[in-house]
Design goal:
Elements lengths: L6 H31 L7 H27 L3 E4 L6 E4 L7 E2 L6 E2 L1 E2 L2 E2 L2 E5 L6 E5 L5 E2 L6 E2 L3 H6 L5 H4 L7 E10 L3 H12 L3 H8 L4 E7 L1 H12 L3 E11 L2
Helix pairs in contact: 1-2
The chain binds zinc ion (2 copies).
The site of one zinc ion (ZN) has 8 residues, from loops.
């Protein structure tokens, strides 16, 4: 049994069978009428009667299916992601795919749970997640969006939106090189790539620390660059810029 049966799917199955039985019934009645017309001396009458009985049987089945369709319960579940009402036959027993937005609707105790939005740190697209989300992959760029599951476990009740954070941070950051170690040559190479500057410009920069390397980048990007430069013994820091992108 699927976790959520769509009402129209169920109706379609009933209707298909009902129409098939109705068609058989009509065939039986037509056949018996035909036999009756050419009954000759009456020896075919019992056969015609038998065909009628079978036809009535099929008609009964067709009517039964029509009643089933009428009885098909309607249980509407509003998708929290697109506000579309999914018509099911009963409360869903688990997550199901919304027939409008094709996203997974998180279900708990038969009803959808709250979803929160998070902005992808790579492409800026809004993505949705819920308490149940363990891995979040951006719908547009397929990068993984980190969500703070640890914090969500510690949080109480349904205040998930506040406990999951990370890339919902709308601030833009300034990325600053504070100090560097002995691997200067390596660092110069990396910075040349990162900043598209020539070797002399980078060397010059390293003599004037601290220096702002980049401005207007996301926290996520700043964290990644920090980790990258740390491998080359460079100390960096980032701070939010006063202007927000919002
Ligand atoms: Zn939807
Ligand atoms: Zn993305």
């Amino acid at each position: 049994m699927p976790r959520a049966q769509r009402r129209w799917d169920v109706i379609e199955i009933h209707a298909e069978r009902g129409l098939t039985y109705a068609f058989f019934a009509i065939c039986c009645f037509a056949l018996s009428a035909f036999i009756f017309k050419f009954r000759g001396e009456g020896s075919l009458i019992p056969f015609a009667t038998l065909v009628i009985v079978i036809g009535v049987g099929f008609l009964g089945w067709a009517i039964y299916k029509a009643i089933e369709i009428k009885k098909t319960m309607r249980h509407g579940v509003i998708c929290p992601l697109c506000d579309f009402e999914n018509e099911l036959i009963s409360a869903p027993t688990g997550d199901f795919v919304c027939s409008n937005c094709q996203r997974m609707v998180p279900i708990e105790n038969g009803t959808p749970i709250d979803v929160a939005q998070v902005k992808c740190g790579y492409c800026g697209e809004l993505n949705y997640f819920s308490e149940k989300t363990e891995f979040l992959i951006c719908e547009v760029c397929n990068h993984q969006i980190p969500i703070d599951t640890e914090a969500s476990r510690k949080s109480t009740g349904k205040k998930v939106a506040q406990s999951f954070i990370v890339t919902s941070d709308d601030n833009v950051y300034e990325f600053i090189l504070v100090a560097h170690g002995h691997k200067t040559e390596e660092l110069i190479d990396v910075l040349q790539h990162m900043l598209a500057l020539n070797r002399n410009q980078v060397k010059q920069m390293l003599n004037e620390l601290p220096v702002t390397l980049l401005t207007g980048i996301t926290r996520r990007k700043a964290e990644m660059l920090q980790a990258q430069l740390a491998m080359h013994e460079a100390a960096t820091e980032f701070r939010p810029m006063t202007q927000s992108r919002a």
